[in-house]
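Progress note, sequence design subtask.
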């Protein structure tokens, strides 16, 4: 049709135009067409080359700092690839179906927190979401083969299971993946714990004793009307577990060395330590020498002018947290109580008792042995940073008043300090700091070529006394960030690029901006970000920065929107988010990864026995048939199982409020396998735990009553039956 129309037009034009004009017109038209065709062909070839080069596959094998292998084991290429990607890398779902339960839990939690939505609106959201899920899963079923990344992931998981003698962990600094022998790790950690001046072995587990002591202190806070009853219930601990120590290898050290970290989450003193931190945090914000971050120091540095005979030095404290003495903390709090009391109504006696309790309950388990830390606080205790900050600020205040020279400025961030002092005063400064307390040991670094590194800054002293800064990354940094191929939302990856640009611009003088952009592009290219896409985002950021486009502040965004967390699966999560925003315009969706490489990393913390786990959904198999019982509990699992066993005693046969498990036992005579109970889900949030229990009841052949799932919408039935 088009060719016939074109031929008719040519015939008409030939009849209407002179021959020379017509021939010239045809020649120019053909030339223009050929130029346009050639340009389109070149552009398409360029696109094809870009797509095949930048998005064909994950490429990380050339960056040795991503993966540090301290064993003699030869790693296959797929294993190197997956472990180099890092623990936060999320494997995309191409043929393996993602779990359905997290979507339902989070969706129901969101709907439950929207009291203005009608029942009909909620059902519309559920129905549209289920339709999207069904379509997505049906699309996955058309792929019969695993993607290359999925193959590499499953191969790596099997390889690590076949080699239990090695450990795969993250490094202490630098964001690298570390592979080491398990025996070497345990040997070095135990050698450190043999230091009798710092650690001692406990004969028994004091968790219940410490939990009771902490709750008594919280009750005293309540009795003196310092905290409200609701806050007291939140602070009190139940079903506590023992803190767990683990070590992260210091890859920046030439010898084998591990940083001890104690995981205090769910420990007896965790909530009380958080309370102390929250109480003292407003006070710490008033400390003269403290800075919140690098940006605050940059803003301060622009106001500084140094005398010509001054130089820059930095001070660091060796193992600060574990060397903060209890008595020193008590003395500092007593000395400064007139100031501290302005920020809290707690009497000094009670506050001092809380501090003593935090120090004296510093204990943990490693490799099945329970240890007590004799002094100092653990790295991982929520109170450690604020107590350490209190001590260091007191040290600085006392030392500066004893010096024979003037310190032009001094700024502190946790245990990193930068100062400007006379060039001949370095020895006196270091001696004064090291003479304050025998447990606090300081090291000093001097400027080189009028430059010194502090946090993520290079601080430079100019000839006129002014100070300029540049964004700095340590030589030990691996350069690994979230990889472009990770199953994370595009918004998050754009945010990474913008954050890098923000740091490069805000922490650096103008002269360094272009150089830092080159560094950013290399960093992103090493992590598989397509360079054309990166350039577009960076150009847009630069344009907005130059035009100073106003943006909504984070506080305003928080005030105007409600937030929901959803598991991220590309092509599914975005659609569910759009459905929610159609009915709830103010909702803001944040996505979290579902299947991360970190899942196959070694578990280097002592595991909590199933019987001492709480906030779980569990399954108990019936020994006489193929049914099971699904339940949930916020207690220790062992306590809930004892209640089930008690309900199955003959004396309770005619109780009116028996559980479905006891009913089945008495009706059939079947015995349940309480010793083989399985934890099917862990969920801290009570509402989500209820939803999880109902989902598991629906998906299993259970003895549970129908009423146990009456609050789970029937709209989910189809998707649970097909893909649950």
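Output:
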């Amino acid at each position: 049709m088009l060719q016939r129309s074109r031929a008719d037009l040519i015939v008409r034009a030939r009849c209407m135009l002179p021959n020379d004009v017509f021939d010239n017109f045809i020649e120019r038209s053909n030339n223009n067409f050929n130029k346009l065709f050639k340009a389109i062909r070149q552009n398409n070839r360029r696109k094809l080359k870009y797509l095949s080069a930048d998005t064909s596959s994950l490429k990380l094998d050339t960056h040795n700092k991503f993966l540090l292998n301290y064993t003699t084991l030869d790693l296959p290429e797929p294993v190197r690839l997956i472990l180099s990607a890092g623990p936060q890398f999320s494997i995309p779902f191409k043929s393996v179906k993602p779990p359905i339960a997290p979507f339902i839990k989070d969706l129901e939690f969101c709907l439950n927190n929207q009291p203005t939505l009608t029942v009909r609106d909620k059902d519309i959201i559920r129905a549209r979401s289920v339709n999207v899920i069904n379509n997505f899963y049906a699309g996955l079923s058309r792929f019969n083969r695993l993607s290359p990344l999925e193959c590499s992931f499953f191969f790596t998981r099997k390889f690590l299971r076949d080699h239990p003698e090695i450990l795969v962990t993250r490094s202490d600094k630098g964001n690298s993946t570390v592979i080491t022998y398990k025996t070497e790790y345990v040997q070095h950690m135990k050698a450190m714990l043999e230091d009798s001046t710092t650690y001692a072995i406990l004969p028994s587990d004091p968790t219940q004793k410490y939990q009771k002591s902490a709750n008594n202190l919280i009750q005293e806070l309540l009795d003196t009307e310092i905290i409200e009853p609701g806050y007291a219930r939140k602070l009190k601990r139940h079903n506590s577990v023992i803190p767990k120590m683990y070590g992260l290898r210091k890859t920046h050290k030439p010898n084998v060395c591990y940083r001890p970290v104690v995981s205090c989450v769910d420990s007896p003193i965790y909530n009380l330590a958080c309370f102390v931190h929250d109480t003292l945090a407003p006070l710490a914000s008033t400390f003269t020498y403290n800075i919140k971050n690098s940006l605050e120091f940059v803003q301060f540095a622009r106001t500084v002018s140094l005398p010509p005979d001054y130089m820059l030095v930095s001070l660091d404290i060796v193992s600060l947290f574990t060397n903060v003495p209890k008595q020193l903390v008590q003395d500092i709090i007593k000395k400064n109580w007139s100031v501290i009391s302005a920020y809290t109504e707690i009497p000094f006696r009670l506050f001092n008792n809380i501090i003593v309790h935090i120090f004296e309950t510093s204990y943990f388990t490693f490799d099945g042995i329970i240890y007590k830390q004799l002094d100092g606080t653990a790295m991982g205790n929520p109170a450690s940073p604020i107590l350490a900050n209190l001590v260091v600020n007191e040290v600085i205040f006392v030392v500066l008043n004893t010096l024979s020279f003037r310190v032009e400025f001094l700024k502190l961030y946790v245990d990193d300090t930068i100062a400007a002092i006379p060039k001949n005063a370095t020895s006196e400064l270091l001696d004064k700091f090291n003479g304050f307390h025998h447990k606090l040991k300081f090291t000093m670094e001097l400027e080189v070529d009028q430059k010194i590194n502090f946090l993520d800054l290079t601080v430079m002293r100019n000839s006129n006394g002014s100070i300029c800064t540049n964004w700095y990354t340590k030589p030990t940094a691996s350069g690994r960030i979230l990889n472009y191929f990770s199953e994370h939302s595009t918004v998050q990856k754009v945010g990474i690029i913008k954050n890098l640009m923000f740091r490069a611009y805000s922490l650096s003088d103008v002269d360094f901006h272009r150089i830092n952009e080159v560094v950013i592009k290399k960093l992103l290219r090493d992590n598989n970000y397509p360079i054309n896409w990166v350039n577009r985002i960076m150009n847009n950021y630069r344009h907005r920065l130059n035009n100073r486009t106003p943006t909504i502040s984070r506080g305003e965004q928080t005030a105007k929107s409600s937030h929901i967390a959803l598991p991220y699966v590309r092509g599914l999560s975005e659609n569910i988010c759009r459905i929610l925003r159609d009915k709830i315009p103010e909702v803001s969706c944040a996505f979290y990864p579902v299947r991360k490489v970190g899942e196959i990393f070694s578990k280097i913390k002592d595991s909590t026995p199933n019987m001492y786990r709480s906030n779980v959904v569990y399954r108990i198999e019936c020994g006489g048939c193929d049914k099971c019982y699904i339940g949930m509990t916020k207690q220790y699992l062992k306590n809930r199982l004892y209640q089930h066993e008690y309900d199955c005693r003959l004396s309770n046969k005619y109780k009116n409020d028996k559980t479905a498990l006891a009913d089945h036992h008495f009706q059939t005579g079947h015995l349940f396998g309480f010793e083989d109970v399985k934890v099917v889900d862990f969920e801290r949030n009570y509402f989500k735990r209820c939803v999880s229990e109902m989902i598991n009841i629906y998906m299993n052949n259970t003895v549970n009553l129908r009423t146990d799932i009456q609050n789970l919408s029937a709209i989910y039935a189809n998707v649970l039956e097909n893909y649950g």
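Residues 202-468 form one domain. Work on this subtask will continue into the next period as scheduled.
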